[in-house]
Amino acid sequence: MTSTIPNIGLGTFRLQGQVAIDSVRNGIEAGYRHIDTAQIYGNEAEVGQAIAASGVDRADLFVTTKIWIDSLAGDKLIPSLKESLRKLGLERLDLTLIHWPSPGGAVAVAESMAALAEAKAQGWTDLIGVSNFTNAHLREAIDAVGAAQIATQQVEVHPFLQNSRVVEFARSQGIHVTAYMPLAYGKVMAEPLIGQIAARHGASAAQVALAWSLQQGYAVIPSSTRRANLEANLRARDIVLSAVDMAQIAGLERNERLANPDGLAPQWD
Ligand SMILES: NC(=O)c1ccc[n+]([C@@H]2O[C@H](COP(=O)([O-])OP(=O)(O)OC[C@H]3O[C@@H](n4cnc5c(N)ncnc54)[C@H](OP(=O)(O)O)[C@@H]3O)[C@@H](O)[C@H]2O)c1
């Protein structure tokens, strides 16, 4: 267990069965020590299988799961977390997030946060946090458990959706940001400006997009089914973008939100 969030993690959304096992196995072999799953991804067992087979000490891995919306009630959250642990074959999570705020406010933020804080107090998870929270939700979460308890706000951030209002509010409260879909699910690779910056650095567009997030202090959790991409993405840590590069990429903002599911997405900031 490590108590800080490693800045590059391995995303596992959409990865199922053997594809999930292979991606996590290849990722750990390539050097990833932070793995991001969720109850709704339906791959916690496969993620756990790959972790067990890796031979890497549990103490050196950082594993995140996310509580699905059907388990946000005070009496459901801890049992669902225990079920995640059973599937993952782990005794404790490093980080557990509320995946989405309860649609329509069916379960109060304070109720879920209290249950999550209790899960931490009972030792089921080392850190707790939130995902896809609006600033109003985050304010409620802070009021419920205190900003110091909230290890991260995991939100969609990439050059085309920089989410500045959400990022700025989290930061103003001292809360770390994790950028999900940091490659805009592959779209950054098609952006000519990112390609030009990548060429200047002898890097790939994916690496430049990841470096842009890392340089702002975010953790990133790109996913890949290809070993070469997994390895290349880790090397984004070696790239140093100039202030001009950073500003040019910032100019690509176009409020292009990719994760916006009907019936689930809140009223975004
Ligand atoms: N909290 C939430 O609600 C939430 C929502 C969405 C995502 N997430 C998390 O964020 C993670 C990342 O998001 P994502 O997987 O949707 O999108 P992403 O990481 O932005 O993009 C993944 C796509 O990029 C491609 N790719 C990866 N590395 C590449 C490289 N070096 N060169 C070229 N292509 C590359 C992958 O294809 P290949 O497989 O071919 O490499 C895949 O199609 C998820 O897996 C999940 O863990 C969280």
TrEMBL record:
One of its GO terms (molecular function) is oxidoreductase activity. It holds the Pfam family Aldo_ket_red. This is 2,5-didehydrogluconate reductase DkgB. Transmembrane segments: none annotated. InterPro entries: AKR, Aldo/ket_reductase_CS, NAD(P)_OxRdtase_dom_sf, NADP_OxRdtase_dom. It is an enzyme of class 1 (oxidoreductase). The keyword rRNA processing does not apply. It comes from the Bacteria. Gene3D superfamilies: NADP-dependent oxidoreductase domain. Belongs to the aldo/keto reductase family. Residues 8-252 form the NADP-dependent oxidoreductase domain. The gene is dkgB. Its EC number is 1.1.1.346. Keywords: NADP, Oxidoreductase. PANTHER family: 2,5-DIKETO-D-GLUCONIC ACID REDUCTASE, NADP-DEPENDENT OXIDOREDUCTASE DOMAIN-CONTAINING PROTEIN.
